[in-house]
Amino acid sequence: MLFYGCKQQNSYIVMMNNVEGLENGSGVICEGLTVGEVSDMQLHKDSVFVKIKLSKDFKLPVHSKFRVVSSILGTSKLIVERSDQSKFATLTDTLRGYKDTGSIFSSVVDTAKRKRMEAAVQKMKEGFVEFIEATKRDSTNP
Questions:
Q1: Domain limits at 28?
Q2: Model-level pTM greater than 0.70?
Q3: How many domains does the chain have?
Q4: Are the beta carbons of 111 and 31 closer than 8 angstroms?
Q5: Does some domain include residue 56?
Q6: What was the pLDDT predicted at 142?
Q7: Sequence-distant (≥ 6) Cβ neighbours of residue 87 within 8 angstroms
C-alpha cells in the first residue's frame, strides 16, 4: 500500500522543543515507510509547531510520539513512534515530539531494529561486567 505520494492528505501539528536538522520537505517515517512530510515549522514561545501532512490512509493512534532523527549525512527525518492505543488521533489533537540526542543508535530509523541493537549492547555490557568480576575473583583466589 502506497502511503505517501497520494493526493489525499491530513495535516497535523506536532509540538516540539528542538527541530535541529528538520526542514520543510523532510520525510515522516513509520516502520521504515514514508507516510508523509513536514510542510511548515513556526516558532511559538518556547516550542516549535511542526505542520506535517500524512496520507489519509495512515491511521495515527492517540499518544503516538514523533522523534527527529539525524543521519550521519546531516539529513533529518521525523519518525513516528506509534502507541498501542486503538483510538486514533484527530486533526485537532496536540501531538508531541522530541529530538533524539542521546543514543548512538539515533540514526537507525527502524524502531524495532534500534531496540534490538540497544538490547544487544546491553547484553554485551552485562557480559563484560561479569567477565571483569570473574577475573577479579580469580586473581584473589590463587
A1: 9-109
A2: no
A3: 1
A4: yes
A5: yes
A6: 63
A7: 61, 62
